[in-house]
């Protein structure tokens, strides 16, 4: 197939393009930056440019949309709405006008999270009335638009909801943890480490997209459906990082913070931010809730409808991620952190 990956130069986009090339598909990346993956054609463009998106979608058999602006701010943000919601509408319209038969959207577990605990969640969970951050709201709105578009102009759509992505070329998770521990010698842990969270390795997520894209048609079980994608057993958010710190021989002291106290701190910080703007809050209600309350899911529906199962073991995912952290986040030159830790989309 001819595959267009919107956001193909990002962390997930790179893994998806690489996986599809390995399976013999012709792959094009549409992004603000050129793709660094072998065998991938690059088209430079902005998802907010409807004409550019439409041009990139021409003659494609499937479009995979991975672009998102990500942060935990609680306020409505025009630029986030333009990218996450209006940009997605540009993609939908482009697929419809170009006769693209398949559109696959990268969603998030955040679309169903309002801070209440979720244990072994599945696709029967409803959207909440309110999210703790605007990101979750925009991802929900975009997903709803994608699912509502199923069948319109012959386009089959589905949405894959990613758990906490990790792996090579990470721009959000490891760059916000490892360098801070190295520099401060402190690892701050909120709560009692009993809450459970889902992470998913980047190549397993890319494999889910490959399986879904190859099977999605208007007559398939996937059409108009949402799927949680996880891989290995969930664990505590903070405990997940400790084996990496140990393997990297990073010396640190644990600082334990009360979940209830930090939620109050977050509420105050967000209130002050709403009043004064300026720098982002030092901690958010989303961050506290997501790491101190159960927040995990299963992928039974994806296994049933398109035979999804992780292809990279937990140990192999650990070793690959560890190697990337060593080479990209722990170089002696501090400037080596700049590109990977800069705020960006998925």
Polypeptide structure, described:
There is one protein chain. The chain is α/β, with parallel strands linked by helices and 346 residues long. The protein has a domain at 2-170 and 198-232 and 296-311: Rossmann fold (3-Layer(aba) Sandwich). It is 39% helix and 18% strand. It has twelve helices and 13 strands. A seven-stranded parallel beta sheet has the order 3-2-1-4-5-7-11, sandwiched between helices. A two-stranded parallel sheet has the order 6-13. Strand 4 (62-65), helix 3 and strand 5 (102-108) form a beta-alpha-beta unit. Helix 1 (11-22) crosses helix 6, helix 2 runs parallel beside helix 3 and helix 3 (78-98) runs parallel beside helix 4 (134-148). The protein is globular. Residues 332-346 have low confidence and may be disordered.
Helix content: 25-40%
CATH architecture call of the domain at 2-170 and 198-232 and 296-311: 3-Layer(aba) Sandwich
Reported by name, the CATH topology of the domain at 2-170 and 198-232 and 296-311 is Rossmann fold
Gap from first CA to last CA: 24 Å
* Overall 3D shape: globular
- By CATH, the superfamily of the domain at 2-170 and 198-232 and 296-311 comes out as NAD(P)-binding Rossmann-like Domain
**SSE succession:** EHEEHEHEEHEEHEEHEHEHHEHHH
Q: Which spans have pLDDT < 50 for at least 5 consecutive residues?
A: 332-346
The CATH C-level name of the domain at 2-170 and 198-232 and 296-311 is Alpha Beta
- How would you classify the helix and strand content by structural class? alpha/beta
Mean pLDDT: 94
The total of beta strands comes to 13
Number of helices: 12
How large is the share of residues in beta strands?
A: 15-25%
Radius of gyration: 20 Å
């Amino acid at each position: 197939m001819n595959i267009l990956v919107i956001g193909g130069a990002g962390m997930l986009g790179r893994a998806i393009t690489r996986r599809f090339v390995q399976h013999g598909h012709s792959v094009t990346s549409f992004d603000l930056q050129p793709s660094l993956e072998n065998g991938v054609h690059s088209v430079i463009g902005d998802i907010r440019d409807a004409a550019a998106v439409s041009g990139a979608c021409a003659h494609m058999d499937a479009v995979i949309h991975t672009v998102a602006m990500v942060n935990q701010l609680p306020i409505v943000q025009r630029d986030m709405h333009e990218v996450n919601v209006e940009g997605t509408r540009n993609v939908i319209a482009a697929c419809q006008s170009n006769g693209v038969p398949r559109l696959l959207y990268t969603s998030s577990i955040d679309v169903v999270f309002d801070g209440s605990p979720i244990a072994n969640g599945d696709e029967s969970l409803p959207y909440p009335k309110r999210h703790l951050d605007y990101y979750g709201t925009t991802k929900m709105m975009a997903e709803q638009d994608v699912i509502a578009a199923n069948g319109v102009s012959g386009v089959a759509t589905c949405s894959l909801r990613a758990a906490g992505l990790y792996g090579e070329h990470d721009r959000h998770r490891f760059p916000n943890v490892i360098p801070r521990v190295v520099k401060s010698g402190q690892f701050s842990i909120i709560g009692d480490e009993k809450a459970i969270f889902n992470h998913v390795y980047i190549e397993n997520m890319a494999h889910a997209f490959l399986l879904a894209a190859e099977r999605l048609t208007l007559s398939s079980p996937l059409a108009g459906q949402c799927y949680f994608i996880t891989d290995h057993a969930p664990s505590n958010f903070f405990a997940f990082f400790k084996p990496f710190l140990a393997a990297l021989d990073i010396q640190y002291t644990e600082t334990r913070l009360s979940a209830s106290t930090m939620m109050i701190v977050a509420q105050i910080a967000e209130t002050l931010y709403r009043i004064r703007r300026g720098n982002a809050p030092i901690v958010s209600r989303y961050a506290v809730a997501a790491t101190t309350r159960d927040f995990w899911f299963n992928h039974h529906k994806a296994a049933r409808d398109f035979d999804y199962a992780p292809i990279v073991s937990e140990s192999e995912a650990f070793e690959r991620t560890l190697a990337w952290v060593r080479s990209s986040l722990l170089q002696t030159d501090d400037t080596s952190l700049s590109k990977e830790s800069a705020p960006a989309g998925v």
